[in-house]
């Protein structure tokens, strides 16, 4: 199954409106993340400390008080998802569901789950090798893992954070962006490479290695979306990858501290 073709927009005013819309959406979401990541990488590269000797932390505590820590982390996830709601609203048309338009529905749960699991395996194993290789070459910073036993709600929040990342990246950077760029007349590979470059860019805060790893992931996910017309398996795969990174990576660091550069 290939994705449904979007009609080319030829009206000049409508094309301008779409471009403005895309800029606003990305400026409110992952485009801003990409800019901050680029600045973060420049800051790291201009430090006297080599890039490979630096670190970055994921899912850090927001307060020393437990109830505030939970509240801040939950609200960060909750309000981040409004960007996803926004693009779904922008893709909605009377009589045309935005969920079905980008293949984010439950019409084929078994096939989507199977495809998501396969993609997660295909990306996950080389991803570990790429991270370790980047650490060895000094082009990837050490990722500091959040402790899993801080509070009873730590793991549920980490799983929600993984869901937030999966939804935000796949719905916005694939489902929404592909739709709009097709309407503007971009060809398939220009869209795939443009989306993949954006995906790599907002991971630059982790170093140069993760940029190329996420670029490759973006190319694969973009090709799959063009082939299948569905974001659901991409969301499933992304959630599995991030859930494993957030929950299993701290255990890997604990068990193999030398290997994972802790």
TrEMBL record:
One annotated GO molecular function is: peptidase activity
Per the database record, which ranges form the CAAX prenyl protease 2/Lysostaphin resistance protein A-like domain? 152-243
Statement: the UniProt record of this protein carries the keyword S-adenosyl-L-methionine: no
Its GO biological process annotations read: proteolysis
InterPro entries in the record, alphabetically?
Rce1/LyrA-like_dom
Does the UniProt entry include the keyword Transmembrane helix? yes
Q: Which domain of life is it from?
A: Bacteria
Span-the-membrane segments of this chain are 20-43, 70-92, 113-132, 152-178, 185-202, 208-225, 237-256
List the keywords (alphabetical): Hydrolase, Membrane, Protease, Transmembrane, Transmembrane helix
Identification of the protein by name:
CAAX protease family protein
Source organism: Microterricola pindariensis
């Amino acid at each position: 199954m290939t994705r449904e073709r979007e009609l080319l927009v030829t009206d000049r005013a409508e094309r301008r409106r779409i471009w403005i819309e895309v800029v606003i959406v990305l400026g409110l979401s992952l485009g801003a993340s990409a800019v901050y990541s680029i600045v973060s990488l420049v800051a790291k590269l201009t430090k006297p400390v080599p890039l490979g000797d630096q670190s970055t932390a994921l899912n850090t505590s927001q307060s020393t008080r437990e109830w505030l820590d939970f509240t801040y982390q939950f609200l960060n996830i909750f309000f981040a998802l409004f960007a996803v709601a926004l693009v779904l609203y922008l893709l909605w048309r009377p009589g045309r569901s935005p969920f079905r338009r980008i293949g984010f529905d439950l019409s084929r749960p078994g096939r989507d789950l199977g495809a998501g699991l396969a993609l997660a395996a295909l990306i996950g194993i080389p991803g570990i090798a790429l991270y370790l290789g980047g650490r060895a070459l000094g082009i990837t910073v050490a990722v500091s893992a959040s402790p899993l036993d801080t509070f009873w709600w730590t793991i549920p929040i980490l799983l929600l954070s993984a869901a937030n990342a999966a939804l935000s990246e796949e719905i916005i950077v694939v489902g929404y962006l592909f739709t709009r760029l097709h309407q503007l007349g971009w060809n398939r590979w220009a869209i795939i490479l443009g989306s993949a470059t954006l995906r790599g860019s907002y991971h630059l805060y982790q170093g140069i290695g993760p940029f190329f790893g996420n670029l490759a992931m973006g190319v694969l996910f973009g090709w799959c979306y063009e082939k299948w017309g569905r974001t659901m398996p991409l969301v499933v795969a992304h959630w599995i990858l991030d859930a494993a990174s957030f929950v299993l990576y701290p255990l890997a660091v604990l068990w193999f501290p030398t290997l994972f550069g802790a």
